[in-house]
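worker-03 picked up job from queue 'complexes'. Input manifest follows; four sequence lines, order preserved.
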Amino acid sequence: MDNRLQPLAEEKVFKDPVHKYIYVQDRTIWNLINTKEFQRLRRIRQLGTSYLTFHGAEHSRFSHSLGVYEITRKIISQFERGGYEDWPREEKLVTLCAALLHDVGHGPFSHSIEEVFDTHHEDWTCRILLEDTEINRVLREVDPSFPEQVAAVIRKTYEKPIVISLVSSQMDADRMDYLLRDAYFTGVNYGTFDLERILRVLRPHKGRIVVKESGMHAVEDYLMSRYQMYWQIYFHPVTRSSEIILRQILRRAKELHMNGYAFGWMIEPIRRLISGTIDVESYLALDEATMQTAFTIWQSEQDALLADLCRRFMDRKLYKYVTMDDADESLWASIREQFTAIGLNPDYHLEVDFPFDLAYAVYRSGTRDAKKNDKPPILVLDRDGDVSEISKKSDIIRSITGTHRGKYHLYYPYEPLLESAGKLSPDLRKLFELE
Amino acid sequence: MDNRLQPLAEEKVFKDPVHKYIYVQDRTIWNLINTKEFQRLRRIRQLGTSYLTFHGAEHSRFSHSLGVYEITRKIISQFERGGYEDWPREEKLVTLCAALLHDVGHGPFSHSIEEVFDTHHEDWTCRILLEDTEINRVLREVDPSFPEQVAAVIRKTYEKPIVISLVSSQMDADRMDYLLRDAYFTGVNYGTFDLERILRVLRPHKGRIVVKESGMHAVEDYLMSRYQMYWQIYFHPVTRSSEIILRQILRRAKELHMNGYAFGWMIEPIRRLISGTIDVESYLALDEATMQTAFTIWQSEQDALLADLCRRFMDRKLYKYVTMDDADESLWASIREQFTAIGLNPDYHLEVDFPFDLAYAVYRSGTRDAKKNDKPPILVLDRDGDVSEISKKSDIIRSITGTHRGKYHLYYPYEPLLESAGKLSPDLRKLFELE
Amino acid sequence: MDNRLQPLAEEKVFKDPVHKYIYVQDRTIWNLINTKEFQRLRRIRQLGTSYLTFHGAEHSRFSHSLGVYEITRKIISQFERGGYEDWPREEKLVTLCAALLHDVGHGPFSHSIEEVFDTHHEDWTCRILLEDTEINRVLREVDPSFPEQVAAVIRKTYEKPIVISLVSSQMDADRMDYLLRDAYFTGVNYGTFDLERILRVLRPHKGRIVVKESGMHAVEDYLMSRYQMYWQIYFHPVTRSSEIILRQILRRAKELHMNGYAFGWMIEPIRRLISGTIDVESYLALDEATMQTAFTIWQSEQDALLADLCRRFMDRKLYKYVTMDDADESLWASIREQFTAIGLNPDYHLEVDFPFDLAYAVYRSGTRDAKKNDKPPILVLDRDGDVSEISKKSDIIRSITGTHRGKYHLYYPYEPLLESAGKLSPDLRKLFELE
Amino acid sequence: MDNRLQPLAEEKVFKDPVHKYIYVQDRTIWNLINTKEFQRLRRIRQLGTSYLTFHGAEHSRFSHSLGVYEITRKIISQFERGGYEDWPREEKLVTLCAALLHDVGHGPFSHSIEEVFDTHHEDWTCRILLEDTEINRVLREVDPSFPEQVAAVIRKTYEKPIVISLVSSQMDADRMDYLLRDAYFTGVNYGTFDLERILRVLRPHKGRIVVKESGMHAVEDYLMSRYQMYWQIYFHPVTRSSEIILRQILRRAKELHMNGYAFGWMIEPIRRLISGTIDVESYLALDEATMQTAFTIWQSEQDALLADLCRRFMDRKLYKYVTMDDADESLWASIREQFTAIGLNPDYHLEVDFPFDLAYAVYRSGTRDAKKNDKPPILVLDRDGDVSEISKKSDIIRSITGTHRGKYHLYYPYEPLLESAGKLSPDLRKLFELE
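worker-03 finished. Artifact:
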């Protein structure tokens, strides 16, 4: 490794509302932050469409990425001060780079795009690390194999699991930063927990990261924060409504493209996205600005459905929702039929959402939602040196493990239903609160 | 006035990080917030390009506008509880609407656009209130004359000066909110002051708003916050550098347009903006998303200067700066000459900035920078009922009144100068820190 | 009711770190705060000996009492704005006075004194309200029956249960203030929850106070705060150790008095306390200053045990503790025997503590610890108007209801044991960590 | 130096509301904190009688002393990381001990006692370090000369001025902690400034501590905090009133003692205090608990003046005050005469206070109030390596340097004047607001 490992002549700092300051000592980290691919994260919001519910939530993935880096830096710095044998010091820069870059492959409104176009941001992250980018150039300056090493941490194939778990586990720097940050910017105080104390009770132990038992209540508090943030912020039904509209815009555009529709307005990166031919260069040209610009202009598209969905998204005329305990197939068929009868398109004007289902996956591994559950559990180290999974030790954590709620939300456009209310059955008029 | 003056059946709240909650009781306020013109403020950052210096500063004019409304609501509510005779209760809704809407005419990166295209956001605000918009329709539902009444407050021609001064004075709801909000989102604590105490010492008095003398220290603290925010945040040289790049992009686009240049890519609202033919509809289609999209795509424009400026802005490759005490004309001429000799364009590649000049204008009226100084001074009401201008009472306030610093910053592109350093005089090499 | 019900000419405020400001509008409240009995609360710490563990916890019952008053004032003010029929407006002043005065009967280190001398602070509160005190005079100025009305709220015999439940229930103003306040002054952030939101979802409903279902997560968060505060702060083993020492000082003094011991130093109120002959006047002369002064001087008492205990308390040379899973009677007998053999007094030098037992009682009524469980449960009002007990609705709350842990702590003086370690059995040497 | 310099096996932490955590790594520091002389600081409030104005201000000198230690530890730790040549690393423990212990000589209500009995807390600090105390024993374990070294820092005779200035200068760890701490506990936000930033711009430079010019605004903010805290908190007229009463209790007790008065109740340390014969042992037995106990019991003393003053202090029946611009000698004589005529004692019942005078001394050396002004000024290091005194660089700092206000407050007992109002001249009735 060459002189790129040399520290900066003078430590650089970023003012950060969550961590007060973010400290950069490595030249490589500094150079990575200044690449255009990393700067692009400034134009992608951390919480996607949540700003339509919580107007403070305009913070970017740029600020979150710096925060993940900073927490990782603090954990490593404490491991080094503690002198723990388990900690592979030479891996420090790999870990810091992976922490900083783990989200660099996120696109605008990432979850919606991933769902509609079946892409994965981890894949894009790795491509951005490995293909011809400024980031790749900065990493290669450390060592030709360095981009691959960092990518291995992202892909979870890196040889030392302890490095992976710092960046990706049930209590990793990523989660710790986003809970604190999302709480700060939305203005709720559910997400606050004692970061400093948690950092103090983390230990490397037999190749894994564990929590000293004396810090278990701090971990309980952290997991409760996470639980509350999911229910109060991430699953907020108004946010879900905006995500539904957004997904339908993307689905509609894709459908129109496949049907040979001639868009009145288009730009190349979006054309490639919806046609499934996107490459790294075009992907990096996508951000929330370009997507929103498309939606703004598409309000004048000839396709009335696309134009209406775009207007709804940009002007925040979202779908309304009602809460239901249950629904049988016959009700379902009846709704679709009546919607069609009054000129609505049930594929676009109706959506059922089970946000609570995701909570199940939050703290339990080995379940059906495997993709989201591949993160190792939180381990507690007791005074006798024994390690156990935390939910075995805490009633509270057990109570939020595997939770699953049966209620679901039904989303629909209120105004056209109200206009045609007379043509709907009384049941539906009641269900959709039209009278 | 009709039933639009009726309160909402149930108070609505917005979660806000600065004021905890924002309370909406009037149907008109609720409906205004839901107009598309007001929702558009979500896509315009409160602090323009400051997010390039302070990554937390992504908050929108939408959140600020709600904050100004909320502070105004609190002041009025306290005036009403206090039962002060000076307070014209029937003006409550006018004031609240003006507070909410005072920034609705802001465009993307407003100050830069105003400077290059000589527009004024107050004018746009009034046009949006009075022309054919959703906002106009909501206001007219109160009373046909209502849009004009609200516009009069914005224009400062409203008959009751006390109403105007709530929305626009040296210590108005606008300033109180933005100091607190900008401090919160940048993460600095310079901007914090005791809002609750200030609200408690404000009084209507003989048609003006005054501060009880017992609250003078709180006002000192507020003005010091303002002073510090100007120096630390608003005038930060990195932010100034990004504003310079931004202005030059706009200037270049305008110049190219005037010279008949055929843009490789253009959209209608921007074409109208740079050609000076913009109307309300196109203006409302402008936001930071559309501007940034243009800058993204213009990186491939044939005009190398425009393309370079756009790349600098989007990738945050800003101009460097040096601080100078003074400069004589000969130095100036020499720089321009040598810049031209190495292929730089001194009209675009060189800019001098006196950010400190503006501080002069902050708290003193009747000076040359009249446009920015038309806000009434802060008045103190002493125990004997006498009113005086606050800087007469406070050494501290006097010390920041009329401040003017002589130093200025010189901005320039570092990399091309470094490349051609050999062709520059030793003086310039030293000045631009090229060796 | 006479003119004492008139509001103050000008609202008074107290600066408070938890609520920012505390607002006093009623003359009666103002006068009550200025009585000497209420001022005495300044000399009694809210958290007893917790300051020996958390050095910030020096806040007094005076500040807590103001806080309870303020939260009650806010709840009532919101009930009045909401115009709920269930709310008996004429009871406002009774409720506010009860909120302000509910702790006025607390003595110094209240829980220890109550345990050793079998007194109850509620009884003292009522006596202070009803006997010849400044407080009684202020209350009688409202109406001769007023002291009795306020006392009835304290005793929970007041005819309107809704008034009682504001001051004393599972989610009363008392608990809300102390969680926030104790968290603030200790510096932990476990105790923070969204007070403003909880206030907004409280409703009077059929003579009780209920929570709207939409606010249930805020209540979960509040109960988790409470749970964490109990485990992290109130049950902290170092605090328990200091309480043990304190109780033993009091027990020893009482024992000595009963045995006719002639104290080298004594003052009248303490003599009356330990002899069981205390009256209101003497009780009011007791505060933490007088108790600590006694302990300071008693370090020179002839009784070596009392002197040693006092020294331990004042110099914070507390007992050490070890955690045990279980203990059989034979171990117990063996410890006592060996302690006696080396000159220790097992009645004073050994104490077992089950702090966790109390957590059981926190949220469940109808259990054996009836005295501590007489507070009504938290009720949730759903959208259909049905009311249910909250733990039926929330997994999380169920998980902390009725919790009971088996471990206990054994407290003992380390130094004398270490000195005589050679005379102890190996088992005990290991148990007491002497080797 | 022996093994006492070894660090603790495991870092200890204190939870602190201001600094979140206070970290102890040195065994000596840990042992000093556990001495009885240091524990005694728990019974002495940091802000004396200010709790009578700001009820949150109950924090002790114990917590402040830990805070000063922690800030010093952070500064040193940064100097060591920065690798500055000026910093004498071997002095680390001396500095930390001096920081921790600098206030250990404070007595209860220190400023009042110093004024009445002409003692100085620095002298007591040195005696406690050097005479036969637990602190002395812990220090001697490091090295026999160690107590003397630490005392030299306190006395400002230590050979390295840089060590002294960390503990005692215009911007030392002491001031930084108390501003933040007093602001936190009173609940005002005047005292907040960006500690982390200030720590980052401090540098050792040619044997002194300087501030990098880039941090000057942070220093301005710190000095403004200090200014505001003086005016809003430390000089608050209600606090001054309580200090006046307190001083008069002490003066009266001293006077009575000198006149051979037989106190109905007395304890040895207080007897020694008022007779001027106090030694270290008795001094250490004094704390706010013993003083308040005396005042409580003295309410029944035969001397009516002493009893009345004690009642005023304990029940917070303080003197009222009026603000005056000026007073001539004849007014003065007239007040004294009329006071005497109605049975008041002008030596005790009347006091004039110029709190603003002290502000003069705050930032300027070389003035008449030399004793309070012996702290070196704040030095700014500019980019050229030049050092200048900060008020030369900042208009704001100049505006608060040497400030002096002419108004004064007149304190007097309201009730007896009101009772005898008829016997006073109209002028006095007006002056004392009796009508």
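worker-03 released lock.
The first strand of chain D starts at residue 7 and ends at 16.
The interface with chain A takes residues 13, 20-21, 196-197, 200 of chain D (CB under 8 Å).
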